[in-house]
Amino acid sequence: MVKKDPVIVYIVGQYPSYSEGFIANEIATLRKRNVQIKVLSLHRGPIELAVDEGVIYDCALVSMDKIQAQFSLIQKIGFTYFVLLARTAASSGASPLAFLRNIKYFFSSVYFVQQVNRLPVRHIHAHFLSTPTSVAAIMSDLMAIPFSATGHAHDIYTTQESELIKKITAAQLIITCTQFNKAYLKGLVLPKFQDKLHHIYHGIDLGHWKWKSRNPDLAKKEVVQILLIGRFVEKKGIIYLLQALAALKGSAYTIECRIIGGGELYSAYQKFMEEHALTQTVYLHGALKQEELTYYYNQADIFVLPCLVASNGDRDGLPNVLLEALALGLPVITTAVSAIHELIEQEHTGLTVPEKDADALATAILRLIKDSELYAHLSLHGRSKVEQFNIDRSTDQLIHIFSAR
């Protein structure tokens, strides 16, 4: 009999996803290094995004496939099934909603276990410390193999601390994409669990995101092009860019802006643009495939992302779009929220302004238009900084961690 290579199961919430291309990149790069990955996804991504045929998607809660999976596992592990089901139910506390949610997670976990039962799975890894990690923990119990997870931003800062502590305690290890996140998580747990926490930046393929020489003399351009890529949600701070652009209408420069993303605040932004006569110079686009973004990066003169801490505590970690912009030599204006300072060094690799400050943002935009020396400096040194975020380096770190377990 031919011995099969061990498999790492990746559990994700949606696959593929416009806003989570870094996960697909991570999986693809690990596979190039001959790491066997099986992707389990709780939801299907947009149909227009290509995905490998091997992805296993969760099925409906009430379906014959899911019911059959329960009976099959009961036959295999017997009473242990009911012990783990009872433990999952008990973890809900007194909340009926939590009870229903956890039972749903359990049934999905059983379904996934049955789908991979013929594979030589040696480890389970989840992306996001939310639902995917809940499923990973249950699968880990059902299969008696370890699990780990990667925490990002939304999942860390909008999840109850008690829930994060429970997951860190149960996991074999936790990876997070910034030093800022690691410090936050480290502060939640007892010293004996802190060694479980690891920091690995999201890497990007520098062979794809190639530096482009840009004309730094924006003041002489007929039209200055600004670009923002991000979901239309509060934490991206898009409204403050729109306010800054409204304030700059009276300046000596013609400024156009493209905002690529789409989301729940589209109508609110559109209304603001109509009220402030911005519809002829600001263009809202829907989400685009990663390979389509390069064109817009290359057409832009300045990249802006005025991140903020949202009212529910949500925030970005270190947005990949900042890495991509810098890699292409596109100067960046952003804020110092969360871990952004780990990439953007003020006046060296980019400019930062206070969050929720449209006036400061407008001033920074004008400064880059007028100061060609600063523009050229940021373009050159931004790319140099991104060299530290090469995906080959982050992949080496992942392989080392997974191999050591």
N-to-C order of helices and strands = EHEEHHHEHEHHEHHEEHEHEHEHEEHHH
Task: Tell me what portion of residues adopts beta-strand conformation.
Answer: 15-25%
Largest sheet: 7 strands, parallel
Number of strands: 13
Distance between the termini: 26 Å
Any overview of this molecule?
This protein is α/β, with parallel strands linked by helices. The chain folds into two domains: 7-203 and 390-403, 3-Layer(aba) Sandwich (Rossmann fold); 218-389, Glycogen Phosphorylase B (Rossmann fold). Helices cover 43% and strands 16% of the residues. The chain has helices at residues 21-32, 64-77, 79-90, 96-115, 131-143, 154-157, 161-170, 179-186, 191-194, 238-247, 266-275, 290-299, 320-327, 358-370, 372-386, 391-403; strands at 7-15, 36-44, 56-57, 121-127, 147-151, 173-176, 197-199, 224-229, 255-261, 282-286, 302-305, 332-334, 351-352. The strands form two sheets. Strands 3-2-1-4-5-6-7 form a seven-stranded parallel β-sheet, with helices on both faces. Helix 4 crosses helix 5.
Summarize the structure.
With 405 residues, the chain is α/β, with parallel strands linked by helices. Helix content is 43%, strand content 16%. It has 2 domains: 211 residues, Rossmann fold, CATH 3.40.50; 172 residues, Glycogen Phosphorylase B (Rossmann fold, 3-Layer(aba) Sandwich), CATH 3.40.50.
